[in-house]
């Protein structure tokens, strides 16, 4: 980054609410006398604010400054640019956002979508962006004409929003001479209303739920079984199933009990290898 005289001024975009978050004792922005930017390991924000922010201030020359206020909301990264003089050109990550001989309205705001908290981003994830601000609509490299801001922000998490990663596992809980009981466990990082959990079971004569869930066979399939229900984010959903293998379907001495487990429209998590029953 081009070296300029730089001052780092820590501030709060909005102050208030001394209430603590209900997540690992995280705290909201407050009215402390010593203003500070947020600490992503202990602080959090509400979707409607207030938000922790950091002001980055640089000078074209003494008395002629540009301030970039950086902060994240629950869904976006925000950069608010103000200047003691005019703003006639803004380049964001090498892309021209504004270029005109007419000064931009201040603050000039750049918004970067972050996606869904807990899925696309998490507390303390780093957001890195480079902003070039010019007081002339030009591309020259003369001193006192432009300033570069190379900003990395540790994102502040959202209060009360539980974070988790998707997960899937399964294990045999009981093995009999002519049956097999398997426990499947699925965890989604987001809510999935009316989730369709589908199992492909090519070599069974019956599938008997052990936990009260009901399964259907779409299209009267003899090998596909489907459960439909709500899956809540970050809560393990289990499926305890008794399989009756079809050992008469061939002379290979085994039955492919389950060859696939998927939640339609959702990302796959964990590893799955087909479940095989050794026939007596």
Q: Can you write the helix and strand succession as a string?
A: EEEEEEEEEEEEEEEEEEEE
Query: What radius of gyration results from the CA coordinates?
Result: 28 Å
Q: What is the 3D form? A: elongated
Mean pLDDT: 85
The number of helices is 0
How would you sum up the major sheet?
Answer: 5 strands, antiparallel
Query: What is the spatial order of strands in the main beta sheet?
Result: 1-3-4-5-8
Termini separation (Å)?
A: 71 Å
Tell me the β content: over 45%
What structural category characterises the helix and strand content?
A: mainly beta
Flag low-confidence runs. 1-35
Any descriptors?
280 residues, mainly beta, Immunoglobulin-like, five-stranded antiparallel beta sheet, four-stranded antiparallel beta sheet, 20 strands, elongated
């Amino acid at each position: 980054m081009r070296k300029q005289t730089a001052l780092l001024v820590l501030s709060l975009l909005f102050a208030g609410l001394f209430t603590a978050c209900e997540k690992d004792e995280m705290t909201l922005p407050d009215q402390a006398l010593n203003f500070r930017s947020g600490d992503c390991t202990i602080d959090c924000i509400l979707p409607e604010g207030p938000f922790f922010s950091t002001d980055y201030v640089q000078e074209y020359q003494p008395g002629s400054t540009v301030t970039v206020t950086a902060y994240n909301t629950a869904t976006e990264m925000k950069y608010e640019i103000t200047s003691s003089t005019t703003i006639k050109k803004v380049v964001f990550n090498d892309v021209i956002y504004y270029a005109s001989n007419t000064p931009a309205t201040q603050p000039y705001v750049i918004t970067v979508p972050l996606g869904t908290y807990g899925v696309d981003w998490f507390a303390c994830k780093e957001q890195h962006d480079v902003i070039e601000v010019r007081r002339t609509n030009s591309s020259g490299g003369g001193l006192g004409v432009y300033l570069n801001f190379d900003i990395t922000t540790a994102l502040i998490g959202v209060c009360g929003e539980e974070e988790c990663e998707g997960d899937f596992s399964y294990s045999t809980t009981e093995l009999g001479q002519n049956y097999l009981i398997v426990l499947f466990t699925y965890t989604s990082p987001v809510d999935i209303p009316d989730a369709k959990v589908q199992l492909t079971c090519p070599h069974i004569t019956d599938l008997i739920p052990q936990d009260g869930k009901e399964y259907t066979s779409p299209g009267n399939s003899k090998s596909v079984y489907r459960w439909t229900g709500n899956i809540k984010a970050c809560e393990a959903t289990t499926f305890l199933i008794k399989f009756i293998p079809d050992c008469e379907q061939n002379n290979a001495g085994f039955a492919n009990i389950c060859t696939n487990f998927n939640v339609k429209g959702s990302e796959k998590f964990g590893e799955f290898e087909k479940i095989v029953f050794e026939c007596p």
